[in-house]
Design a protein that fits this description.
The protein is of the alpha+beta class. The chain has two domains: 2-117, Thermophilic metalloprotease-like; 122-313, no CATH class. It is 24% helix and 30% strand. It has helices at 2-16, 35-47, 68-75, 90-98, 111-117, 122-138, 230-236, and strands at 24-30, 51-57, 79-82, 102-105, 141-145, 151-155, 162-163, 174-176, 181-184, 192-197, 200-201, 205-206, 211-216, 219-224, 245-251, 271-276, 290-295, 299-302, 305-309, 312-313. It is globular and about 55 Å long.
Length: 315
Amino acid sequence: MEKSLARACDILMRECAHVRKKEEVLILADDAQDTDLFYALAAAVSRAGAKAISMIYPAIAPYREPPRSVVLAMKNAPVVLACGTIPMAAEVIKESLDSGARILSMFRISPESFARTVPIDYRKLKREMEKIKKILDRGRTVEITSPAGTEFRVQMAGRPTKLALGSVRKAGEVDYIAAGAIGVAPLEGSAEGRIVVNGTILGFGRALKPVTFDVRKGKIVKIKGGGTWKGLRHLLRRDRYAPWVCEIGLGVNPEARLVGGPEDERVRGSVHVGFGENRFFEGTIASASHMDGTMLQATLKVDGKELVRGGQLLI
């Protein structure tokens, strides 16, 4: 594991963060993160001839601000590698980008996931994802079905599809590790049908028993299952927009596996639907919550043409 993690960190410096010699690189993790990843990243920064500045801060509530010293450090660092176990507030990321940082967001990632999903062919991944982007950008409707019972339809709004290519080169850029997730904001209020999540609900874990969301006029009106996750219904009641469908997405990473975390959205051929905040996707929903549910063996059609069939990506 130690060697594979070190190799993945070296690839990250070279092909993802594009770290330059003598450049300062801020490595952020909360105290719940595995220190193996934290120290492996710092060592790789040094091997790249750059300067590692490392900070470990107390774990925060999801999408909240970290300590002020962390916020100030992010605003003054040219490169930020953020690998805490819990995502921080989007406003903090935006302020850092506005200050000139380039950021790789790796929240919730584990050392095992990092070592497996980072060493991939990024050129091939980019070609595939850009083909998918063209299809989704032109799309007017998306339909998702699955053997588990998903029957879902939503109108598109002509918004640009976002790609997690895992690469930042310029000041003010942010991207995501693991690479290989695709997301787009559909037309708010247009979603109808039933979503049966049999993969993962991000932030809660593997859906060992399917969780069903009935959606009407763009928002969840009924949930069946997920009873052991006491916080699930609470999250979806966090504010008036938390239960609104906000994102349609799929996975492309060839090395991603179903592990109960954000890696699951990258699993090649997986399909996910997001609820809540979507301004990053140029949508209009402002919420303190963003939750994704991943479906396995699903079929996704854009304007009647299959892009994913039974969990197999057709690209």
